[in-house]
Fold each of these.
Amino acid sequence: MSIYMDKRTIIRIGIVTGPTGGHFFPGLAIAEQLREKADVKTQFFVPDRRYIVQWLQKKGFHYKTMPDVRTTIKNPLSFLKLIYLVFCSCHILLKNKYNIVVITGSYATLPFLIASFLCNKKIFVHEQNAIPGKITRVSFFIADRIALSFPSADIRYKKNAVITGFPIPEDFKKRYQKKDILPLFNFSENKRTVLVLGGSQGASFLNNLIAKNMDYLSKKNLQFIHLAGMEKEKLSAEYGRYGIKAQVFDFYFDMAKLYSITDMIVCRAGAGTLAEICEWNIPAIVIPYPYAGGHQKYNALYLAQRGGCCILEQNSDAIRIFPDIFEKALKESDTIKKNLQKILIVDSAGNNVRAIMELCKNGV
């Protein structure tokens, strides 16, 4: 047998992601699973964001950063840039002879989506949210397969859609012993640990929500890990003022360590965060980000209707009623954990990769 692999057997897959964690991490998780296959080579095409580059370098994936553009009627030049990026994407796809392009949504992936169609490349689109985004809605007309994290009852999308679940990167699933991680944060075993995740959008609201309820929280037997973004110093001072044990970070790389010691989460309703809640079976108070299309509301409702979380709407009453919602989550935490075990939105069986390989080898 020749020690040289026949080049014709190599499946070349381009993975194109958007700039947010919700769009990038599903692509990373898919690539991790594809890398285990000897006949597959992957290449990332991503917006130039520091954290994305850091992750790809850490994992040793080949990548190329690409300019991104939001096309708007108010900015006619954005359409010219889009055309240029489509041309560049076509050149890349044809030069490197990709068999399939995997797209995880966001405006930043539009040039590759169009280019893949023009170059007659197979297209696999992963939709993270309960309500398909704009790119996915466009993709239903041209993609070979649409992979859904949440079940969709819309019969218009059944022809080329398949429910695969949300793929979670290995780093986010790694298990640690609680007793080994608590000392890293100088935490006690006799206190419940609450994790506050601001998210990439709207972190200030969650920070303010917690800050305004410090008096109530100081009376509970709690300790906090708070990812506060740019307001790290402000939140750290507030916790100190009320004598609450807390570790405040702007960002934390190893989320599995945090999940390993967390008893409750206060967070946004991004699909990735909710998938991780289901993976770890952690009760949560979920506050959907009301802007950016409002898709987080439907993500949260999917879990809440199945008893998998408590919802707190972002409005003028949120600060006042937060203690009531918090008490409800504490009281029902055991029931919520059991319900989360039944909610199947995590791709724990490699469904996305299986669908991608079927497209590559067997056609549509």
Amino acid sequence: MRLLVTGGCGFIGSNFIRYVLEHYGPALLTNVDSLTYAGNIQNLAGVPETYGERYDFYHADISDQERMTALFTKHQFYAVINFAAESHVDRSIDSPGDFIHTNIVGTATLLDTARRHGVRRFLQVSTDEVYGSLGPEGLFSETSPIQPSSPYSASKASADLLALATHHTYGQEVVITRCSNNYGPYQFPEKLIPLMIINALSDKPLPVYGDGLNVRDWIHVEDHCAAIFAALLEGKPGEVYNVGSDGEMRNIDVVRMILAQLGKPESLIKYVPDRLGHDRRYAIDSSKAHRELKWKPRHKHEQGIRETIDWYVANRAWWEPLLKR
């Protein structure tokens, strides 16, 4: 079974590649990535040497029809797992065109090329941000209305709808996963948890948007990877699966946990003007994934964040060059 992973040099994609190659011996895997700011070839350091012919890399933009056709002609893929995306909300506010190009046009190109080349399954990796913001109570389910609040989430919602339309129009085996906020190794330093860890290590101010009371459901990236692979094998075509860890935390509490574990003072916290259109709360109902995919998260937050801090402390050679970009 050969899989095509797009965006495999990004945070979640690279963790997924390592997860599959480590846990599923027969799998062959091709990684296509355009290596934009968040795509780092060093995220997969050691993988080619360790796994040899089971892994290969293809440098290309997923929206390039000619390049994608050449790739799908070279290999017969069982499935496409589409991680490729511009994903940072702040960047989408400043430059929405890049998000339309990759997240919408790129997904449409992949769907079309996969269908024409007889790829059996297409797994679209999405986000809970497509649902918009929750009130103080309740959970997002797979039937919650799509109400994106930023150019990023609007582009991901558009890609999801394209994927579902492809299933209903052509019978293509499309499965969608929508996950809550990830954390863990190899996450780009502009994201909340690595940014707070890195700034705290250097005794720099930790910028917190607004009042810091925005709520997110945090999940360790390895748990997310396990859910994606379960959805790939067991998910029903045309279905959406929410992936979360039932672990809601306010942003300010995440920041305080990081400071406490590093032995740093809370005086490093600096409140900054809130992000435009900042969603107040996300919370995910993952019961469908538990029931149909036989998946549940394994990591507890405090331990997972402790392990993540230890990883960033031990891997300065990975993240320090990224700060100079």
